[in-house]
Amino acid sequence: MSNESAQASSLLPKNIAALAAYSSAKSEKLTGTTWLNANESPYAKNLELSIEDLNRYPDPQPQLVIDRYAAYTELESENVLMTRGADEGIELLVRTYCEPAKDSIALFLPTYGMYKVTADTHNVSINALTQELLLNGSADEIVAAVGSSKLVFICNPNNPTGSLTPLDKVKAIATALMGKALVIVDEAYIEFCPEQSATKLINEFSNVVVLRTLSKAFALAGLRTGFTLAQVSVLAPIRKVIAPYPVSGVVASIAAQAIAPDAITSMRRQVTILNSLKAKLVDWLNASPAALKILTGEGNFVTLKLADKNYFKIALEQGLVMRAFTLYGEDDWLRISIGSEQELEQVKIWLDGLQTPATAASLAGNEVS
Q1: Contact 72, 194 (CB under 8 A)
Q2: Which end of the chain, N or C, is less surrounded by CB atoms within 10 Å?
């Protein structure tokens, strides 16, 4: 290490020096022709864009976007905070409500990795619970395990397992933790099962927060736009902490078009198609010896345990990029995003090819070497 690097490292707080950064799908630097690794929508948007007023600062919370998203979620505009993706919402909640080196957040593993990374960044402890507890434990058991944690993150549907926590259980947890903790329901994939949304709890519970994004069903992953939904009393201190101009004028213009009534109708049609394609993929996986276990759940993805982790390498050689996972301590898990019909056909070709004698011989050769 150079002297300059050593000097820079000496300035780092211990929690940052020890931090393991979140590894996103796009950070893996893979190459391919069919991309089914980041739970992106296959539908590209055609939007109109005006950039004539970029010399002016934007509205910190663009009113048209706020009003339209409030209408979409059946909330009031005062219940909506627009952020740079749901990730900023996570960060703002931890930064606003948790005291470093004192408070903790509770999460249910395996789940989305940014909860932990954000807490580690702010020197906030992790109360690591399990999806098994969340799904099968009673509300009393869950609340007891949560203990004194200030924030409770429930990814619903959960990434990467697709599991869904019933709304009645979320309500029971929120009831028991009233005045003790915020229950944060991350609904990045809720458009694929909208009847399960916790937004209907916000008016009733001052400690329920819902995170949303335009990255999945709304097909705007590149826009980095999300929303934090909660009662006014919860959002008020967050508004003190958020950057003065978090939303660019360009982003606001695109987002307003994406959540216009006709665009929402289009999104719902696309979700219906994607859910149908997912069912077809699940049928293929059930018929394939390549998949030992399939976690279907909700959302625009399917997570499975491979019979042989070398199958992932074969997919890459074919230009098919999916998301390899270590799950439950095993490194042979794979998450497949639901792409277009043509993209999923590449998955079918890959699966069919794994059953050929040539592929079996090639895998045997890999095992010997």
Answers
A1: no
A2: C
Transcribe 19-68 into DSSP letters.
Answer: ------GGGG----SEE-SS---SPPP------TTTTSPPPSS-HHHHHH
Residue 2 has pLDDT above 80, yes or no: no
* pLDDT given for residue 363 in this prediction: 55
Average pLDDT over residues 41-70: 89
Longest Cα–Cα distance in the chain: 64
Q: Is the pLDDT of residue 30 over 80?
A: no
Tokens found for residue 350: 């890959």
What gap in Å lies between CA 304 and CA 58, rounded to an integer?
44
- The contacts of residue 266 (CB under 8 Å, 6+ apart) are none
Which residues lie closer than 8 Å to 206 by C-beta, 6 or more apart?
178, 231, 233, 234
Would you give the end-to-end CA distance of the chain in angstroms?
A: 36
Evaluate whether 84 touches 246 at the Cβ level (below 8 Å): yes
Task: Let me know the angle formed at the C-alpha of 112 by 255 and 101, rounded to the nearest 5 degrees.
Answer: 105
